[in-house]
């Protein structure tokens, strides 16, 4: 009945956790949910008002497949100003979220059987999306001592004549690590030499606590030619449900993405696009304020984890996650196939705290905690994690 493509897809662990949390809450059980990767801020008022105005003024008809002209022009200006890379509006394609942008991009450049390099740990949807478009995910191990940022020596171990693309998440989900300009230059130069396309997922680029952010496409003309930049509004503007993302790429790749998107979804919701346009044009201070709050929460979460001697973590420079190493608990926590699943299930059952098992990201000795929530939830949640570990 089902296609082989459908049968090959692994269900999302994060969606499964959220389903469990929802069921427990339906039973009036209080849960501290530190699993969901979503800002807890409302969408900025000016963005919401722009959407309402679009509805009132009947801006609800079909538009360009590649996105609203006004929004694309604003994205071009943003990339020039903030990311130091110049594109034309025809090189921008607006999509129904960054996840859709990634899918579009992979469909445009991957042939069946070609390989996509995915550094571990990875965002849960990377390997499944690669499989959906007929590619083969090839996982690249990186060193925890380097915050799991891959190096050329890590990458070259996995190169074959089928290697087509490498995905770089920067800032990283799940670790919050950020690549320096020097680190990126070394990777980019190697990829140029080997003719490997770089899928640069920069959805968290504004949530950066450590200084200037380097976009891969900004490093050189050749880097720009070889890079497909993925970005959007879910994280930076707290617009997860609006579903607006985009790609910036060469004209040839953009044209292919437009053709693909035109047949699949026509274009993203015009109402959502007008909201995204207002977010870029009028809501910079709202976004900056969110980042400042996230930084304060990062500092709070890190200080609380520092008190739990049994675990260590990757210190996050961006995004809003802490990736904690629970490998020291392997002999203390009964488990069958997965340590991180056993930890998370037992934590949810005994302490009513939800976090994501690291096996979802390819590293079973870790858990991911999201601190995009109130200080009270962060404090209580991590304290409960500490109590749970002491009880083992």
Automatic annotation (TrEMBL):
<dbReference type="GO" id="GO:0008483">
    <property type="term" value="F:transaminase activity"/>
</dbReference>
<dbReference type="InterPro" id="IPR015424">
    <property type="entry name" value="PyrdxlP-dep_Trfase"/>
</dbReference>
<dbReference type="GO" id="GO:0006520">
    <property type="term" value="P:amino acid metabolic process"/>
</dbReference>
<protein>
    <recommendedName>
        <fullName>Aminotransferase</fullName>
        <ecNumber>2.6.1.-</ecNumber>
    </recommendedName>
</protein>
<dbReference type="InterPro" id="IPR004839">
    <property type="entry name" value="Aminotransferase_I/II_large"/>
</dbReference>
<dbReference type="InterPro" id="IPR004838">
    <property type="entry name" value="NHTrfase_class1_PyrdxlP-BS"/>
</dbReference>
<dbReference type="InterPro" id="IPR050596">
    <property type="entry name" value="AspAT/PAT-like"/>
</dbReference>
<keyword id="KW-0808">Transferase</keyword>
<feature type="domain" description="Aminotransferase class I/classII large">
    <location>
        <begin position="30"/>
        <end position="385"/>
    </location>
</feature>
<dbReference type="Pfam" id="PF00155">
    <property type="entry name" value="Aminotran_1_2"/>
</dbReference>
<dbReference type="InterPro" id="IPR015421">
    <property type="entry name" value="PyrdxlP-dep_Trfase_major"/>
</dbReference>
<dbReference type="InterPro" id="IPR015422">
    <property type="entry name" value="PyrdxlP-dep_Trfase_small"/>
</dbReference>
<dbReference type="GO" id="GO:0030170">
    <property type="term" value="F:pyridoxal phosphate binding"/>
</dbReference>
<keyword id="KW-0032">Aminotransferase</keyword>
<comment type="similarity">
    <text>Belongs to the class-I pyridoxal-phosphate-dependent aminotransferase family.</text>
</comment>
<keyword id="KW-0663">Pyridoxal phosphate</keyword>
């Amino acid at each position: 009945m089902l296609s082989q493509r459908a049968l090959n897809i692994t269900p999302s662990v994060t969606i499964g956790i959220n389903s469990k949390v929802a069921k427990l809450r339906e039973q009036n059980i209080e849960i501290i949910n530190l699993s969901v990767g979503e800002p807890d801020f409302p969408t900025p008022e000016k963005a919401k008002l722009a959407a309402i105005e679009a509805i009132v003024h009947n801006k609800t008809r079909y538009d360009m497949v590649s996105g609203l002209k006004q929004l694309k022009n604003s994205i071009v200006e943003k990339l020039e100003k903030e990311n130091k890379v110049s594109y034309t509006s025809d090189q921008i394609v607006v999509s129904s979220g960054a996840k859709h942008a990634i899918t579009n991009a992979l469909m445009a450049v991957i042939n069946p059987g070609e390989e996509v390099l995915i550094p571990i740990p990875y965002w849960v949807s990377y390997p499944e999306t690669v499989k959906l478009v007929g590619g083969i995910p090839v996982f690249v191990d990186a060193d925890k001592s380097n915050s799991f940022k891959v190096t050329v020596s890590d990458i070259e171990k996995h190169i074959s004549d089928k290697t087509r693309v490498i995905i770089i998440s920067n800032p990283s989900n799940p670790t919050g690590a950020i690549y320096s300009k020097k680190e990126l230059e070394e990777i980019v130069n190697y990829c140029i030499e080997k003719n490997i396309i770089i899928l640069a997922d920069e959805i968290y680029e504004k949530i950066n606590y450590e200084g200037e952010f380097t976009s891969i496409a900004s490093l050189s003309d050749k880097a720009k030619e070889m890079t497909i930049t993925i970005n959007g509004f879910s994280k930076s503007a707290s617009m997860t449900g609006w579903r607006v993302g985009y790609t910036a790429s060469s004209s040839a790749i953009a044209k292919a993405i437009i053709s693909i998107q035109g047949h699949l979804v026509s274009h993203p919701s015009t109402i959502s696009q007008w909201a995204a346009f207002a977010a870029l044009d009028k809501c910079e201070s709202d976004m900056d304020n969110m980042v400042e709050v996230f930084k304060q929460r990062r500092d709070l979460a890190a200080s609380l984890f520092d008190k739990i001697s049994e675990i260590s973590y990757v210190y996050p420079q961006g995004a809003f996650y802490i990736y904690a190493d629970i490998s020291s608990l392997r002999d203390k926590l009964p488990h069958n196939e997965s340590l991180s699943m056993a930890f998370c299930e037992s934590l949810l059952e005994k302490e009513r705290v939800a976090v994501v098992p690291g096996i979802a990201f390819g590293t079973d000795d870790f858990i991911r905690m999201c601190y995009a929530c109130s200080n009270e939830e962060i404090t209580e949640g991590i304290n409960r994690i500490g109590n749970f570990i002491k009880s083992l």
